[in-house]
Amino acid sequence: MHARSGFVFVSVPLLALGCGSRTGNSTLGSTESSLGSSSLSLNAAAPPLQSGAPVRLPTGDFITPTAAPGSSLTVLNPGIPEVPNFLADHAASTVTSPDRKTLLVLTSGYNETNYIPNTAPSPGNIGYEVPSESGEWVFVYDISGNSAPVQKQVLRIPNSFSGIAFNPNGTEFYVGGGQDDDVHVFDLSGGAWAEATSTTDAGTASPIALGHTAGLGLENYPETAGLAVTSDGTKVVIANYENDSISVVTLATHAVVDLDLRPGKAATNPQPGVAGGEYPFWVTVKGSQTAYVSSHRDAEVDVVDLSGPSVTARIPVGRQPNKMVLTKDQSKLYVANGNDDSVSVVDTSTNTVIETIPVVAPQGIFATPGGLKGANPNGLTLSPDEKTLYVTDGATNAVAVVNLRGTAASTVGLIPTGWYPTAVSTSRDGSYLYVTNAKKVPGPACFDILSPAWGPVGTLDGGGPTTDQHCWNGNEYVWQLETASLLSLPTPRGFSLDALTRQVGENDHFPVAGPLGAAASALASATDEGTMAFLRGKIKHVIYIIKENRTFDQILGDLGNGSNGDPALTMFPEPITPNFHALARNFVTLDNFYDTGETSGVGWNWSTAAHTTDQIERTQPINYGKGGFTYDWEGTNRNINVGVATLSGRLAADPLTPNDPDLLPGAVDVAAADGPGGTAYLWDAATAAGLVVRNYGAFVDLARYSLSGTPYAALFPALDHTPFADGIRQAWPAASGLQTLTDLYYRGFDQAYPDYWRYEEWNREFQGFIAGGNLPSLEIVRLPHDHTGSYAASETTAGLGTPLLEVADNDAAVGALVSAVAGSPYATDTLIFILEDDAQDGPDHVDAHRSNVFVAGPYVKQGQVISRAYDTISVVRTMEDILGIGPLGMYDALARPMSDVFDLALDPKSFKYAALTSGALSGTSALSQRDLSRIGEYYAALETGHDTAYWERVMKGQNFAREDDLDVARYNRALWEGLMGSRPYPAVRTGTDLSREARPYCSVDLDETSHG
Fold first, then answer.
1. Which pLDDT tens digit goes with each residue over 632-658?
2. What is the rounded distance in angstroms from the CA atom of residue 911 to the CA atom of residue 586?
3. CATH architecture of 539-594+678-830+933-981
4. I want to staple 175 with a disulfide (CB 3.0 to 4.6 A). Which of 18, 168, 184, 505 is the partner?
């Protein structure tokens, strides 16, 4: 037995996983887990499950999607003739027809199809995205047999964001058009569905336009979300996610009436500056006169009288309410609360909440003590007899089974699903369940669009297509690799449900229920706890460096120290990244580390909160695919700094903020997670514990750097080398908890600004802390230049106009910071953790999430390769343990700390590090003075001869002002060809372990986690 914060639990082994070859996704990690079985309220006679080995996710959890007897997992193939193997991404919603014979599955994700062979790329679409074959899809299934679904049709629409609903007549259904701000109408004729067409332009689809020209905020777009139809079938009600309104459409005439849901915009008794109705996500209609609308931001459900229309009531519910469902008699409304891990039950006669149901797990599995969140309930449906409620818990990869019999509802079981379930429906008789999963483990990142067979990238005119059939369509971006699926299964009951519940507990590392307080980790051993306790007594300062977007193979594939790297994929080798190579060799090489997030918005939340919300999971892939949302995931919403609560404060920070007291009032971030006592992020938990925190560049107002043109250019802070001395402010914090903790002279994400200049500003304060003896307990340092970008002459600074120089700059800044700490009085009590927020921009022979992590400081092992699977959450958990804070949510509470990294017998004085300088930056460590004359010889050594003008030409049209706002397929293609020249790009990723001869492995092999 062991404990964390007084929470005691008992470990038992995971169900047998079997063996496999140490290749592909199998390297994602150990099979160890635990579940306190002594107090499980399950039937001990439950038979064992017949399922394959669990698959480890980059979250540290496992999935067993086909564990349920009789289940099947179906991929969503839209049937593109030219790309027959293309699979759809991010299934978002399901709906059944009124007669429950037809099931519709709607995708709302990345779903961009790249260049199709044998067709010419369009000059205006140089990224090779094919508009006619991209978009979203509605998959139509026959479920009349109360059994596995039979696919009948696939219908394409340009855009969508979750909204889909049947007309009660059963012969029409409607789909929201997302950023297109319209509603698509599909009619049933001759047994097939087709989109309604215009009477004036025969054969042309004719969606109903809603008439919004923009969303609220700065440079924002409209976006339809959920929709519902009145019981008489005459009107459809649509949530306008970015306009804080609903549209009521009369179907006979297509007349549109809007209602602003905000209290300050009410026609009678307005309440300016009062939050309400913002980010409306889902709509449910009672009868023909009353609509219920969930507000993602304001933790309420708005009641609308459609005859006006007008808001008649506001029902407080849990944080981030999303999907809702009414009972047949419409007396109760069930609301999934994504950030509260609960379902609110609303009495529709009084419009009050009469019950709140926890839906993470049965109490005997995991009581979620201490207010820990993280399950992300995001979809729900009632059984036909309405005695059971099924709820998709997206982040814990399960369907919660809620018993509605009796006086109080309770979660009685869990059903394992695929990765991130988003919706659930039942068959007509309730004997079958249908669950959509948003994504799957991506596997090796191939990016085969980079193949030299495409022709010289410098001319951007393309060549013939490669003939390799593994990746020939080039759809190998991480969001394309994480494809959706439909899980179908007989509804489990009795022993079967007991066994499945136990399996979910194992998959998610749930401990047994215990006393209130912080949860214990189901993975941490007594040795782990002892290691962390020792470090907590010795380490007084943690410096956390967050970088951008690189895979393990891209940087360390050439390391040559026995680690699992592929040198053929190394694009930034040791001459460019000497410090990264030295840090990995001198301390620990973690060659089985995975960034939990796919892209920056997801990655930055995993990296700082160890959690991501359903709002982020639903909006990120759409944003990266079609740009339908503003970058709402680092403290700004709609490019408004919501870290500042008052309108006057926002106007002072950004004079272009709309002078509207009803625009997102209060310091509420729609995307933020909730933590115990409001400690959503690392800095919150640290300050709550009385620790001193300093922030350098994290969660600052990115709109100051990214919005371009008149009038935004006037807000762009000058690219100043010595901003403190010159009195030129560089940062405006965008999280409420960072307002007083942020160095205002440290610039955030901006690829035109050198990382070494950032290091110099950090070092200015560091030297002051040395002099004052007051180094903060936690520092968060953003060093983003390995993202690369901003190559145009007008955008570059200090001559850094190529990817090699920018990554070398990033390497130099990291090396200088580690060296500064190692040579300081704080060397013996400071640990430095360095990771990428995501790994999306490059190939890796193991997995698209595999990336670089470095740990430097006292007690860190020296010269060892550690191959135990770790991820972003492991890093956060380790820092929390050392600082004595947290956990922030379920994920970090249940993660295993990185105790393998440390050797407690080491003399802390043995921590030494001297910064290295890439030859490309030779001359001096000050970039502004470096000798540029030697850059040519390093280009030659790397078989490239490309200067700034070349990179400006091949990257023309890319937007580097905002994180990841790129045509990624084109970017990665240009990067490979520009850096690797004529070297052929490997077409097939086997996932082979290149560190040693591949061998079978089982759980007994798990102790072999490091080698020198």
1. 999 999 999 999 999 999 999 999 999
2. 10
3. 3-Layer(aba) Sandwich (3.40)
4. 184
